[in-house]
Each structure stands twice: as structure tokens, then as C-alpha cells.
Design a protein that fits this description.
By secondary structure, this protein is mainly alpha-helical. It has seven helices and two strands. The protein has one domain: Arc Repressor Mutant, subunit A (Orthogonal Bundle).
Amino acid sequence: MRLTDHTDYSLRVLMYLNEQKRLITLNELSEKVGVSKNNLIKVSNQLAKLDFIETSRGRTGGLVIKDETGRRSLKDIIMKTEPSFYIAQCFSGQNCECLYRSRCSLKRSLSDALHAFLNSLSQTTLNDVTPISNKTNINNNLKEIL
């Protein structure tokens, strides 16, 4: 199973925004996550339409993650950013020219693997996979001391 670049970029963007918890410009985001600004524009437009982030335009504009996005499961995020989960041609519902289509047990095994993959992702949130920034560590340590 391989996720599209679009989903990969979406996860990187969400993780970075979730780590930083502040307004981030596209220039900073491009530099930090290693994705071109043009690709980030496409990704951020979709993430905003999906209600994962908020965007603002202009000189002081940028992207910021919505609080509830960090609590979303990876399955929820990926199911909305990945266009399909067709592991093989026979999953697409279109004409499958496979010699074994009428007597295939491979499709069942692949389907079981896909369900296990998605079930695993449903157990993990964006917060679970987002690294904690040094700034967050310092703030948490100060709270413990005070």
C-alpha cells in the first residue's frame, strides 16, 4: 500500500502545524516540511475545505491548525485526503482483465490487509504522531515547577 504524495504532504503539513500551534506562512512551511510552495497551496486549500485548518490571506496571513484536528484519527484524515484505496485493478469496480478474477482469493487477502491497515490508523490520532517541540517541553516543565 502506498499513499499518494498529496496525502503525504497533507500529513506533514498537519503535523508541523500541530507541533507549532501558531500561524505559519507558506514560505516557512515549504522550508520546514520540504514541499514546494505550489504543492502546499493545493494541499492547504483542501485541508481548509476539509475543516482541518484555517487560512488567512495577505501580508500577515498563513495557516493555523484547528484545535480539534489533533484529536482526529489518522484514518479519518487519510480517508479524506487519499483519492482511493484501490490496491489492485479489481478493487476499482471497473473492467478487470485479470485471468483469475472469477476464482481469485488474492482479492480477499488484500482486502483483509487493507482493513487491518485502516483499523490500525483508526487507533492513532494526529496528536499521537506529532513530535513535541522544544518550546512545548519547556512550557510543560515550567508548569510543573510552578
